[in-house]
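Re: beginner question about structure tokens

> Can someone show what the tokenized structure looks like for a real chain? I only ever see the sequence side.

Sure, here's an example I had lying around. Input first:
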Amino acid sequence: MTTTTVKARGAGAGTTTRSAAPERVRTGSRLKPGAHKDNRIGWGFAAPFAILFGLFLVWPVIHGLYLSFTGQSLTGSGGELIGVANYAEAFADGDMWRSMANTLWFTVLSTIPLVVIALLLALLVNTGLPGQWLWRLSFFLPYLLASTVVSLFWIQLYSPTLGPINTVLATVGLPQPAWLQDPNTAMIAVVATTVWWTVGFNFLLYLAALQNIPDQQYEAASLDGAGRWRSLLSITIPQLGPTTGLIVILQVLASLKVFDQIYQMTTGGPAGSTRSAVQYIFDTGFTGYRFGYSSAISYIFFALIIVISVAQFAIAAQRRKGAQR
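And the corresponding structure tokens:
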């Protein structure tokens, strides 16, 4: 600490000393030395992603929204603004609403078994079956296959005359439907293919969650006389609640965007019974050459996905609040 000498005014005044307060360093909003350089380096690393993000996501979204208010054609004509005419036409389009209904129906039919079957498979493997690696590989391997391979494989299985499924049905005396050619069975056939193909991912999520449940909880339950079913209902299922919520959200969003397997197996038929919303957008834009109209439909579908997502998150939040109480 430094001292300063202060002379008092007036006759006979001596000198007094006082301590000077230490000088305060005003940092405030000032950056430390070298911070500007660190910021530049950080922006340099982020720049490639930011550029690609803007070019391939932000710009297409903005440009697509603009196209939805125009009569743009794939041939390049009709680029003038027409207001909300595309949206008005879309809301009155019965084929669009049918494709939306098909998408929602597919989502319901596929989400439930993809959650339940994945949970059952994970519970089965978690019991300690011999050959763990073989079970895990068997359940997860189909998920690694390309959609084209899966579709061609199941088209052969569903063949009305040469397919092994109908061969087995004929052997036991049951009717042999034309799976992919009958409007009553086409959607079910596509759902069965999707479940076989993608259940492995949900299986791994459940298996990881099961392995994170502490063994002490099961030991305490057994000491209290709880059997396997009671432990399953009172410990396992509640502990898997967050994982189940995550799987349901991911599965619903994935099912709403279905396109590949439906387009490859049925091309939306028969009679439009399996045509999804994404395929209808594709057909309108690239087969009907109506880019502006297909853009309007895509944004209506996007709004539907947002509403469903918000509803799911709201339900999950209410469940968390109820569990905390």
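Each token stands for a local structural state, so reading them left to right follows the chain. Residues 291-324 form the longest helix (34 residues).
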